[in-house]
Model the fold of this input.
Amino acid sequence: MRILVIEDERQLARHICSALTRNGHTASALHDGAEGLQSALTDPPELIVLDLNLPGLDGFNLLDQLRQKHCPARVLILTARGEVEYRIKGLKAGADDYLGKPFSMDELVARVEALGRRAATPQASDVLKVGSLHLDVHRRRVMREGQEIPLSPREFELLQVLMEEPGRVFSRIELSDRVWQRDHGYDTRTVEIFIVRLRKKVDAGFDHPLIQTVRAAGYMIKAHG
Ligand code: CA
Done:
């Protein structure tokens, strides 16, 4: 994968790039938020490793602008350990996954590759439909009532899992496992944040909400009526 690392701690950025390069990826680093944004918009990489605390432009603003401009890159944010609110804020702003500092390079490479995995293996069926919502697996486009709905890569994957089996209830743990593929445990809070994000994009402004919460069980997607 082609990866852009935006991290102002130069030594850390260098270590990240060499770990990624050793594992067959192409990685380059920038140390300033504004430069990082510029580069990501003019020449979008497949994945961005993004530190949140940056000079020039902080990671949250950067992320926000990337998503507003529909930059297709996957984003893995780096957050200092224990900063739960930071992580939640980052995911709400459009990150696809996160890693707490300090982390091992093996863990970083594993997170990066988990983010790339689903993108590289599109399913056989091409267009999934639930009510007026259409998801084109190969083109990675989502439309509702003729209107295109831009989604981040992880939002797309979560929606895809739900739409592959309409009417089936998925637990938060299963969704966490299917979409984020964490090696150690589950993160149901992240799933909840992504469901909120998806609802805002897929259901807000339409008459019949498709994404449904099933009390004490999880979520499902189902056409109205
Ligand atoms: Ca920093």
